[in-house]
Amino acid sequence: MSRTTRLLTLLQVLRGKSRPATAATLAGELQISERTLYRDIAELTALGAPIFGEAGVGYVLRSGLFLPPLMLNADETEAIVLGLRYVDQRGDEVLSKAAADALAKIAAVLAPEAQDALRNPTVLPGPRGYGYPQNAVPLNVFRQAIRDQSKLNIDYADAQQVPSQRLIWPLALGFLNEVRIIVAWCELRSAYRTFRTDRISAAHEQGERYPGRRSDLLRTWHKQMQLDDAGRFTPDKN
């Protein structure tokens, strides 16, 4: 990563620590040498970042970071916090970490009058539930294919455990209360379909990008769902 990105990432890592972190810990998280870490901390401190360190204890980022306050009112703050905590409960490891990082960034620049809404929200996301079925294929495989607009060959089993092989155009991941799905165009059915990720036993990129723009395809899928509420988020059954 670039030096600027590394410095900003270091600030974010420190912002997410509630206790001092050692140089070895920080260097490990950033995948850099301790020598580089010491140099980056010195540079950030020279720029005014309130980083304090003590030998044998570690580094901590204290309040007073030179960033403008984020002007959100109490309702806006609670809406964001509720959404991020919902993601933390129902997202995978990647999204849960991203939600925690985002919340730490917001907390660091939130205006004082909105801080109470962050610490003591009036809305809660509810219980975590019973967990999701195990996936044979990591969600990152689907996430990367969606971002690359790459066609995926998948081995799929429907609700009756009937296996099939599909070539799909992955459009989005859906996180429901009990299952996770992938929204896609299915070349076998020549139609939009949703597939439960826990029923996909194998997936690999076909080596070809699907045509058109993902945003346009997703918009068409949304319109189809509006016309067919009964089929909303229903995993493929045929």
From TrEMBL:
Residues 139-203 form the WYL domain. InterPro entries: CBASS_pafABC_assoc_protein, HTH_11, WH-like_DNA-bd_sf, WH_DNA-bd_sf, WYL_dom. SUPFAM superfamilies: Winged helix' DNA-binding domain. It comes from the Bacteria. Transmembrane segments: none annotated. Pfam families: HTH_11, WYL. Residues 6-59 form the Helix-turn-helix type domain. PANTHER family: PROTEIN PAFB, PTHR34580. This is Transcriptional regulator. The lineage of its organism: Bacteria, Pseudomonadati, Pseudomonadota, Gammaproteobacteria, Pseudomonadales.
